[in-house]
Give the backbone structure.
Amino acid sequence: MRAGPRRGRRRNLPPRPHPLPGGPVQHLRAARRRPPARAAPADPGDVTAVTVRRVGGEDWCTLKAVRLRALAADPAAFTSTLAREEAFTDAVWQERAVAGRSFVACRADAVVGLVSYYAEDGRPRERQLVSMWVAPEARRSGVARALVEAVLDAAAAEGAERLTLFVVHDNEAARRLYEQLGFVATGEVQELPPDALRSEARYALPLPSAT
Ligand SMILES: CC(C)(COP(=O)(O)OP(=O)(O)OC[C@H]1O[C@@H](n2cnc3c(N)ncnc32)[C@H](O)[C@@H]1OP(=O)(O)O)[C@@H](O)C(=O)NCCC(=O)NCCS
C-alpha cells in the first residue's frame, strides 16, 4: 500500500458492469494512513475501529445489502438504480461476490462502506473504481480513503497501470475525496440520462508497478 497522498475524480454511462474475478482476501486498518489527530480515542467515528476486507463468495448477502442500501440512500451518486438492482436474482449477487472485486468497510458488526472495481472492455491496462459508498454514520472519518486505497493496491497487484473513476459533476464530496488522493480529471465527460442535465467526469490516477 502506498503512504503518500493521491488525488482525483470518476466516470459513468449506462448501469455499470460489475467486478470480475478477484484475488485473495485482504485486510487492512483504515487508520493506517490517517494523521494521528484523526484517531482520537474519544471520537465515536474513530476510523481505527474500521476494517476493510475483500468480499468473497460467502459474502454475497452482505454485498447485496450494502449495495441496495447505497442505492436507496444516495441515488444521485450512482448511474444504476435501486429498482434495477433490487430485481437482480441471487445468482447475480453471488456472481459479483465471487468475482472478488469488491471491498467492504466494517465497524464493529456493521458494514459501513463499499467499493468495487473492474476492467473496462478495451482498457486491459486500467481498472475502474465504481460503487463507492460510505454510510452516513461513518462519514468523514477516512473510510472512503481506506476503500480507495484497497482498490489501488488490488489494481496494482493485478498489474494495472491506471485507476479511473467517474464523478457526477455536482458531487463535491466525492470530487474532493478523489482529488485529495491524487486523481486528476482526464477531460472525458459523459452526459447522464435521462435529461442530460447532469454529467459525470472521468478521473484517473497512475498506479505504481506492482513489484
Ligand atoms: C463521498 C463519500 C464516499 C466520502 O466518504 P467518507 O468516508 O466520508 O470520506 P473520507 O472520510 O475518507 O474523506 C476523505 C476526504 O474526502 C473529502 N470529503 C469527504 N466528504 C466530504 C464532504 N462532505 N465535503 C467535502 N469534502 C469531503 C475530504 O477531502 C476528506 O478529507 P478530510 O476529511 O481530511 O478533509 C461519502 O460521502 C458517500 O458515500 N457519499 C454518497 C455516495 C457517493 O457520493 N459516492 C461516490 C460516488 S463517485
